Amino acid sequence: MNNFEFKNPTKIIFGKNTIEKLENEIPKDAKVLLLYGGGSIKKNGIYDQVKTALAKVDVLEFGGIPANPEYAVLLEALKIIKDENITYLLAVGGGSVIDGTKFLASAALFEGDRPWDILSKNIRTEEGMPFGTVLTLPATGSEMNSGSVITRAETKEKLAMGGPGLFPEFSILDPQVIVSIPQRQLANGLTDAFTHVLEQYMTYPIGALLQDRFAESILQTLIEVAPKVLKDPTDYKAASNFMWSCTMALNGLIQKGVPTDWAVHAIGHELTALFGIDHARTLAIIAPSHYKFNFETKKEKLAQYAERVWNITEGSIEDKANAAIEKTEAFFHQLGINTKLSDYTKDYEGTAENISERFTTRGWVALGEHKSLSPDKVESIVKMAY
Ligand code: NZQ
Ligand code: ZN
Fold first, then answer.
1. CB of 151 within 8 A of CB of 278?
2. How many CA atoms lie less than 13 Å away from 338 in the CB half-sphere?
3. Which of 332, 98, 97, 135 is closest to 230 using CA atoms?
C-alpha cells in the first residue's frame, strides 16, 4: 500500500427530513447567498424547505446555474457576492450547483484579476469562502470532496480546480429528494458514481486489500440498487443506499494508498465541452474503450473485478478481464445509457485528433496510473469509442 494522508472535514447530515437542520449549521451572523440551478427546487418543494429552515438568516438568492456550471453565469454571482458583502454560500442542487459554488468560494477570496486563471493555471485553493450544501442529486460526490469542474462556453473548455479550502463545511443528504429526479439524471448519477469507483480501482494491484473491498462493495451496491431506484425512486431503502454510495465513491476514502487513473474523466470532460453530452454519458462512452486499449496493464484488476463484482469465475485472467469489460458496458446499457460517441452526435469525425491536440497544448502528455497515456494513445481510445 502507498503512503497517504487523509483529512475530510465535511460534516454529513444524512437521512429523512434533515433539510430542517440547516438552521443549526449556518453561523447566525452570516450574510448568505443561496445558489441554485434551473428551478427544479422550486417545483419539488426543496426550495420551500430550505427557506423555512433559513427564516432567521439574512439570505440573498442566485438562481440559474446551468448543468455544467458556466463561467459567465458564475461571474454574475461573483459580482453579487462582492457588492453585497456576502460571507457564506449555500449550494442547493446537484454537482453543477455545488461545483459552481466551489468556484465562487475560491474566486471570492482570489487576489488576481482574472478568476479564470484559477482553472487555466491550475491554482490550488488553500482557503475559500465557507459554504455548505443541500444535495438534490446523488452522482458526483462533490458534496464531500474539494474538487470542482467549470465550463466556459466561449472557448468550449471544461476544466477542473480544487484544494483543501473547497470542502463544504456541511452537506445535507436527504435521500427523499430523488423522487423528483428525471430517469435520465438518475441513470447519469448511477453511471457517474460507478465510474468514479472504477477510476480509483481499475489500475494495478498494490496490496490495498481494504480499499479494494471498499471499492468493490460500492460497485456491488450500485448494481443492486440501480434497477430499484429507476423503477421506484420512492423506495427509501434503495434511495438511501444510492445516495450514500455516490458520496462514498468520491469523498477521498477509496483512493487513499492506491494508484488512480482518472483518464476516462479527463477525456470525457472534452466530450462535454465539445458536444454538451451529459458528464456521466461521456464516461460510459470512453470507459470500455479505455479498458480495452489498456488491457495489458489493467487486466489483473479487471479480472479481480470480474470475479468479485460480477461473479465471473471461469476462464483465464484474460477471459475474466474481457468479460468484465462486457459486463460493464452491458450495465450502462441496462441503465439506458449509450456507449458510442456516434449515438450522441453525427459530427464525431476529427474528435480524437482535436482532443489529442488539446491535451498536447495543455501539457497533459502523461495521464493514467503509469503516467504513460500520451496524447496519441488518447487519440486511439477516442477513435475506438466512435
Ligand atoms: O438545474 P435544476 O433545475 O436544479 O435541474 C437539475 C439539472 O437539470 C436536475 N436536478 C437536480 N436535482 C434534481 C433535479 N431535477 C429534479 N429533482 C431534483 N431533485 O438535474 C440536472 C442535472 O444536474 P447537475 O447538477 O448538472 O447533475 P450532476 O449532479 O450529475 O452534476 C454534473 C456536473 O458535476 C461535474 C460534472 O462534470 C458536471 O459538470 N462533476 C463534478 C465532480 C466533483 N465536483 O467532484 C466529479 C464528477 O466527475 C463530475 O465531473
Ligand atoms: Zn464523474
1. no
2. 10
3. 332
Please list the residues that pair with 70 across neighbouring strands: 151
Q: For ligand 1, atom 32, name the residue with the nearest CA.
A: 95
Give the ligand whose atoms come closest to the C-alpha of residue 139.
1
Which ligand 1 atom minimizes the distance to the CA of 192?
48
Summarised one tens digit per residue, pLDDT across range 143-172 is 999 999 999 999 999 999 999 999 999 999
Cβ partners under 8 Å of residue 279, min gap 6: 68, 95, 140, 149, 188, 192, 268, 269, 272
Q: How many C-beta atoms surround the C-beta of residue 358 within 10 A?
A: 17
State the pLDDT at residue 149.
Answer: 97
Mean pLDDT of 65-73: 97
Residue among 42, 131, 140, 157 whose CB has most ligand 1 atoms within 8 A, to mutate: 140
- Ligand 1 pocket, CB under 6 A: 37-41, 44, 67-68, 93-97, 99, 136-137, 139-142, 145, 147-149, 177, 180-181, 185, 188, 192, 250, 265, 279
Is residue 279 within 8 A of residue 190, CB to CB? The reply is no
Confidence of residue 210 (pLDDT cuts 50, 70, 90): very high
Q: What are phi and psi of 44, to 5 degrees?
A: -100, 5
Cβ burial, residue 141 (10 Å; 0-12/13-18/19+): buried
Q: Of the ligands numbered here, which is closest to the C-alpha atom of 194?
A: 2
Task: Kindly report the protein residue whose alpha carbon is nearest to atom 15 of ligand 1.
Answer: 181
Q: At what angle do helices 295-310 and 209-231 cross, to 10 degrees?
A: 60
Across 284-297, average pLDDT: 98
Give exposure, 293-312, as e/b (b: 16+ Cβ within 10 Å): bbeebbbebbbbbbbbbbeb
Alpha carbon of 193 to ligand 2 centroid (Å)? 7
Q: How does pLDDT run across 211-230, given as a tens digit for each residue? A: 999 999 999 999 999 999 99
From 41, 97, 99, the mutation candidate for ligand 1 (largest count of ligand atoms within 8 A of CB) is: 99
CA atoms within 13 A on the CB side of 301: 29
How many angstroms separate the alpha carbon of residue 312 from the centre of ligand 2? 26
pTM of the model: 0.98
Output the pLDDT for position 133.
98
What percentage of the chain reaches a pLDDT higher than 70? 100
The CA angle 207-307-243, to the nearest 5 degrees, is 80
